[in-house]
Specification:
This protein folds into 2 domains: about 260 residues, Alpha-Beta Barrel (TIM Barrel); about 90 residues, no CATH class. The chain is globular and about 65 Å long. α10 packs antiparallel against α15. α7 links the parallel β10 and β11. It is built from 15 helices and 16 strands. By secondary structure, it is α/β, with parallel strands linked by helices. Strands 4-14-13-12-11-10-6-5 form an 8-stranded parallel β-sheet. Strands 1-2-3 form a 3-stranded antiparallel β-sheet.
């Protein structure tokens, strides 16, 4: 029996190799192994949009993300629990990470009111009133049955004042303590703390240090990729990284583009999630070795070539750009499905390439070669 197949009863993280700050390793837990660096496809409402669960797994995804806010509103956490939990309901028997719902409350909910206890809001679905506290967030995530859970935090939009960033960071630290108490000890599962502090280095350091002292099983960097330039995001990662326990996984929430992933891994991040590959696919855009392509563009209308004949994904190899262009322009559901498939395959291939490059001690070369491929683009555009 291989290491990957060996059953485990608890949550563990092991580093296998490093190359500079870049790390590769394994998170092991009862439902499976998460190879890091890892990209988690986003399954907001219990589904990775336009994908079958077996497709997602076949691409190499070890874990998917579910959203507390959306699932608590519809179909309801208690209902999910009665139906056997999120794994059973969505037919995904591997690890699931759930976020706390805090970000969506701040960005989607109507008439929200924030105080020390939590946040009161009205659903964007039906206007019903709800209260989300640190304890209720952990309760909901427990009802969903997720393997990795997140503390409730307040995520402020950037740019914001230093005073506003400090207020939200301090509140998030107090909520972290309450989330930790509510979670308790759950063998085989993990609760992650979330570093906040806006774009203020001192606040980020203070947040990371105090969270590290609380003894979470993993640490997330939140409140980034919310409108700030990439260099600000990367600077905050560099600021926080030395203060996070080396032996615990680090998760950069809601990120990002392929270039964001490459640069964040270079700075010591292990886990990512983002709606970008699925959302882009539904709107006719794909990520590839040659960079980003927009299948809506008329230049693809007569192009018989596939997106990428070297891709691991059948959708990228076996369909002409002309056909995919037609599906996108016609609004066909199959077009959304195929392009989402292409994008998630590329993200999984990218992280697999990162893991191998780190293990081989050539991460900088891998990053440079990958970016060079994006810069070259299609060297020989179809002439017709």
């Amino acid at each position: 029996m291989s290491l990957v197949d060996t059953p485990v009863e608890d949550f563990t993280f092991t580093l296998a190799a490093t190359d500079g700050k870049a790390r590769t390793g394994e998170i092991r837990m009862p439902r499976g192994v998460i190879r890091t660096p890892a990209f988690m496809p986003v399954g907001t409402a219990g589904t990775v949009k336009a994908m079958y669960p077996e497709q997602v797994k076949a691409l190499g995804a070890d874990v998917v993300l579910g959203n507390t806010y959306h699932l608590m509103l519809r179909p309801g956490a208690e209902r999910v629990a009665r139906l056997g939990g999120l794994h059973k309901m969505m037919n995904w028997q591997y690890p699931i990470l759930t976020d706390s719902g805090g970000f969506q409350v701040m960005s989607l909910a109507q008439l929200r009111k924030l105080d020390e206890n939590g946040v009161t809001f009205r659903s964007h679905v039906d206007g019903a009133k709800h209260v989300l506290t640190p304890e209720r967030s952990i309760e909901i995530q427990g009802l969903l049955g997720s393997d990795i859970q997140m503390q409730l935090d307040e995520c402020v939009k950037l740019p914001c004042s230093d005073a506003e960033a400090e207020r939200a960071m301090e509140l998030s630290l107090r909520w972290a303590e309450r989330s930790r108490a509510a979670f308790g000890e759950q063998p085989g599962k993990a609760l992650y703390g979330i570093v906040q502090g806006g774009a203020v280095p001192d606040l980020r350091v203070r947040s990371a240090q105090q969270l590290a002292a609380m003894g979470f099983k993993g640490y997330s960097i939140g409140g980034l990729a919310v409108g700030e330039p990439q260099d600000v995001m990367l600077s905050m990662i560099e600021t926080v990284e030395p203060h996070l326990p080396r032996e615990k996984p680090r998760y950069l929430m809601g990120v990002g583009t392929p270039d964001d992933l490459i640069e964040a891994v270079r700075r010591g991040v292990d886990m990512f999630d983002c709606v970008m590959p699925t959302r882009a696919g539904r709107h006719g855009q794909v990520f590839s070795r040659m960079g980003k392509l927009n299948l809506r563009n008329a230049r693809h209308a007569d192009d018989p070539r596939p997106i990428d004949e070297q891709s691991s994904c059948p959708a990228a190899r076996d369909n002409s750009r002309a056909y995919l262009h037609h599906l996108v322009k016609a609004g066909e559901i199959l077009g959304m499905m195929l392009l989402t498939w292409v994008n998630l395959a590329y993200y999984q291939d990218l992280t697999a390439g990162m893991r191998k490059a780190i293990a081989d001690g050539r991460y900088d070369d891998f990053a440079a070669e990958t970016k060079d491929g994006w810069a070259r683009g299609d060297l020989e555009p179809w002439a017709g």
